[in-house]
Amino acid sequence: VSQSRYRGKGIGTSLINEMIKREKPKVIHxxxxxxNEGAITFYKKLGFTTTLLENxxxxxxxxxxxxxxx
Length: 70
Hints:
Order of helices and strands: HEHEE
Oligomer: single chain
Mean pLDDT: 94
Distance between the termini: 26 Å
C-alpha cells in the first residue's frame, strides 16, 4: 500500500523486482480485497496470476495473487 502521491512512479515495481533478484523465491503470493482494482492491476502487470477467494472476508471476496519465479 502506498500513498497516492507515490503511485505510478515505479517504486512498487522496483521493490518487487529487487526482492526477486536478491531473495530468489520460488513463488510469491499475496491477498487483497476483490474491490482493490489498483492492486490487482499492479500485480497483473508484474506477471502475477489471480485466484478468487469467495467469502474470504466477512463482508466480501478476496483475490490471491501468485507469481512463479522459477
